[in-house]
Amino acid sequence: MTRVRTRTAVWALLALLSLEALHPTAAAQANTQLPAYTAGPVPSDHIAQAISRAMAGFPGEFSIALEDLSTSQRWVFNADRLYHPASTVKLPVALYALEQYRAGKIGWQDPIEYTEADFETPGASAFETAEFGELYPVEDLVNRSLTYSNNVAVNMLGRHFGWGNIEIWTGTIGGRLTHENRLPRASALSVLAWWRHLHRLSLEDPERANLLVRPLMEVPYRGRITAGLPDGVPHMHKFGSYDGNYHDSGIVFTTRPYILVVLTAGAPLEEADAAIARVSAEIYGVMTAPVDISPALLRTVEALVSQVGPAEA
Q1: In whole angstroms, what is the distance from residue 225 CA to residue 284 CA?
Q2: Mean pLDDT highest for which of 6-20, 200-214, 277-291?
C-alpha cells in the first residue's frame, strides 16, 4: 500500500511539473483540478535583458519597478529617483478616500462641493459646464479621477481630504508622496507601494477594494502599458503626463500576476509612449514564459520513478 501511494505521489509530481512547462494560460486552464503550484522566481538576468532591449537608445531618464505578486520577487532600476507623478497621484488619493470609508469616517456617497478653487483646464472635461456649488458624491469623483483621469475630480478630493493628510498617509504604506518647490514628487518605489496596497486590499476586503479596481479596469486609454499587452489580457493601470514626465503603472493579471511601474522624464511624448509599450511587452513575455525544469530536479524525479515503477493503470 505504501509503495502504491508513493508511486501515485511521484506521478502526480510529474504531472504538475509537466503542466508548469506548458504556456501559463494553458496550464491555468488545465490545472482546475490540481493543487495550486507556484513557479519559482523569474531569473533576474531575464528581466534585466528585457529592460535593456526595451529601453535601448531612450533619450530621457527612466525608472522601473516590477514585482511578481506570486513570489514577492522585486526588480528595480533607478527606483529612488523622484519625478512629478502627474496623474499617477490619483491612485493614492483614491486609496486614501477608500481607507477613510473602510474606517467608517466617511460615506462613499458623501457629497463634496465643486468650488472655483477646484477648476483646472485642460482636464476639466464634464466640469467645463458645471456650476460652482454643485455637489458630487465621493464615489463619482473617484470614478472620474481613475477611469477618465479627470483633474477637477482629484482636485476636489484632495481639497476635501487635505493634501497634507494624504501625503502623511502614503508614508504609512511605504509609498511616500512628497513635495518639492510646491510640486508633488514620487519615486517608482512609491508608486509600486500604492499598487501593492491596493492588491493587499483586494485580498483582505475584495468588496470594497472593487470600488477602485472596477474603475481602474475600465480605463479607456489604450496606450503605454496596455499597448504592450496582447488583446484581452486583464489589467488595470493609471497613467500620467505632465511637463515632460510620462508614466504608466498598474497590475497585469496573468498566471503570474505582477505590478509594473515605468516613470520617464525628458523624452518626447511619442518616444516615451513607445518605450513604455516596449517595456510592457518585454515584461509580459518574461513573466509568461514557459517554466524550465532544472536538470537536477528532472534527475531527482527520474530516480524516484525508477524506484517506484510505472504509474498504475
Answers
A1: 10
A2: 200-214
Our CA dihedral for 279, 188, 49, 21, rounded to 10 degrees, sits at: -80
As a whole number of angstroms, the distance between CA 97 and CA 115 comes to: 19
Residue 52 has pLDDT above 90, yes or no: yes
- Of 74, 83, 71, 137, the closest CA to residue 110 belongs to 137
Q: Given the DSSP bridges, would you call strands 178-180 and 235-237 parallel, antiparallel or unpaired?
A: unpaired
Q: CA 184 to CA 242: how far, in whole Å?
A: 11
Cβ partners under 8 Å of residue 151, min gap 6: 87, 120, 122, 123, 124
Domains of the chain by start residue, with CATH:
1-39+291-313 (no CATH), 40-290 (3.40.710.10)
Cell of 230: 496582447
Element (H, E) at 273: helix 269-287
Share of the chain above pLDDT 70, in %: 79
Distance of CA 53 to the CA centre of its chain: 21
- Residue found under cell 468650488: 115
Residue 92: name the closest of 147, 144, 163, 156 by CA.
Answer: 163
Closest CA to 260 of 246, 273, 247: 247
Of 208, 70, 97, 212, residue with least CA distance to 160: 97
> Cis (ω within 30 of 0) for the bond into 122?
yes
Three-class DSSP category at 176: coil
Spatial distance between the Cα atoms of 31 and 112, rounded to a whole number of angstroms: 48
| Contact between residue 277 and residue 227 where contact means Cβ atoms under 8 Å apart | yes
What's the grid cell of residue 265? 522624464
**Helical H runs in 103-187?**
138-147, 151-161, 163-172
Place of cell 505632465: 242
Task: Give the strand pairing for 61-68 and 258-265.
Answer: antiparallel
pTM: 0.81
Q: pLDDT band for position 290 (50/70/90)?
A: confident
